[in-house]
Amino acid sequence: MRLPAFTDSFDADWLSLREPADRAARNEKVAAKLNDWRGRLGSRKGAALKVVDLGAGTGSALRYLEPRIPGPQDWTLVERDPDLIAEGARRLKRQASAWGYRPADLAQDDLVALVAGADLITGSALLDLCSAAWINRLVAACAQAGAAAWFSLNVTGDKQWSPADPADWLVERAFARDMRRDKGFGPALGPQAGFQAAEAFAQAGYSIALGPSNWRLGAGSAALQRAYLKGYAEAARVQRPDLTRRISNWRADRLRAVLEGRSHIRVGHVDLFAAPSGSSA
After folding, report:
1. Domain interval for residue 36
2. The pTM is what?
């Protein structure tokens, strides 16, 4: 399984493993702002809502948002990985909305062209991988399209481990270096991305809604905890190879706590909805 904590690509197993935690974490109040915006838009627009989902993976954003948005929808799922496209096409067969994949590389392709004609642009667990320059291009593309934007599960860097371990701070500092490295979009903003995107949208005249969307992982998410811890520790080790033994011991202790049902992890995220000028978030 390839994990986003230490590589720049996700696989379908990882995305399936995290989807229940994502669904539970996403901020319903922020999603309700999107719903309200769609309701107001409906009085001016009778056609299906055109949604472009960036970095769509297997379509988790569609599965989450579709029942929360009133009226017909037409989704374009932008994804570069052919394996994820194939798995998404299999999983989305029963969705009521119209949908289709568009193969594209978000780091290289023209964002203006990718989102042209969209009413709503979405993305999940995406912005913290991206640079300030890329996010500014994204905001400009959204504004040019006159589209609203919903970006969920942007990492904030807030972390809470239970039980506490004396090495937590050390591993966190090493992992923080990984959050800032270039993942194909330029030097990543990491935990600042969601807030910087909100500021960029506000400067472009958008109304903003922000809300926490924290993972809260306990005994019922043991498999996700194990995968997350392995990826987290590997990312930290790559950044601080001089601490390999200490990081390995930290991981072993944490995995033991997971096995014994004692481990709880809170991973901070933030959801963002931005409504264009003339509407309100």
Report:
1. 12-159+185-217+268-275
2. 0.93
